[in-house]
Amino acid sequence: MSSFSGKTFMIAGASSGIGRNAAEFLTRSLGANVVLVARRTSIITDLAKTFPGDNYAITYDFLDLEHIGDIFTECEQQKIYLDGIVYSAGIAPLYALKDNDTERTMDTMKINALAFAEIAKGVLNSSCMHEQASIVAISSIVSIAVTNRQSAYAASKAMLNMYVKYFAKEALGKYRVNAILPGAVETEMYQELRKQSTDFENKMKRNYPLGVIPAEKISKLIAYLLSEDSSYITGSFFQMDSGFLLN
Predict the structure, then answer these.
(1) Which amino acids are annotated catalytic?
(2) Nearest-CA neighbor of 40 among 22, 24, 17?
């Protein structure tokens, strides 16, 4: 894969998990600059300084749908021009439908899907995007499968998938938009799920025959989709599920 030297990518949800790992991989391994967006100011500010390159941090809580356009306004004001965006913000509450928590479900929909729609709006109306920029959304394999106690998360990711399709269509010829559908990835969210589930390790072995996915494997696929090597791919969904759907 070619170097990303001189290119700048926004990472939404950059303070932890896949987003943080992607930011580190893009900067340390490929020479990119990153704009880190998340609600935890101290973490993303430190990461922006720690990672190599000319990086920038923007504090934002994606529960606030109303002002997401301000992120792009700040990029314009700072004369930051983006070659792509990784949308990795997300939450994954666990509860059965019989225990449905409307407030938590709405928060899940906001962060996992509706905020992405506002990101799409920002991209399509902003002057800070380079032509042929690439957008990568992190969805989930559960968006196309039925599991246990993940109805809110799965529904939000299925909604995200549909926004990816519409975004790709509206941006056709100008920007590319694709999604990755991972299975279980070794992140902080995975560790939290471990705490909330009984017999967790045996379930993982049964459900993911190839094992839990290292976050860097997702980062490498993100990098491919951001690169010119994938310049003819848009509106597509890439499954990296460790054999989950075959099981």
Answers:
(1) 153
(2) 17
